[in-house]
Design a protein that fits this description.
70 residues, alpha+beta, 27% helix, globular
Length: 70
């Protein structure tokens, strides 16, 4: 079974991962540290515990990837 990776939103905020860079806007532009922090806070406001690191069509925002048969 294949599973996709995800990131714990509170953990990323707590550990300062948003400062490392690499987060992007939907159009591919890189986010500043402030924009990344705000984006992660927005995910918490939506009630999301984890977010996907890439595309996943079987993702749960509380538990992560539910797995794929291939």
């Amino acid at each position: 079974m294949k599973r996709h990776m995800c990131m714990d939103v509170r953990g990323a905020l707590r550990n300062g991962m948003w400062k490392l860079g690499g987060m992007q806007h939907d159009d591919g532009r890189p986010m500043t540290a402030d924009e990344a922090f705000d984006a992660l806070c927005d995910e918490i406001a939506k009630g999301r515990r984890v977010i996907p690191l890439g595309d996943c069509d079987n993702f749960d925002y509380q538990e992560g990837c539910n797995g794929h048969s291939d």
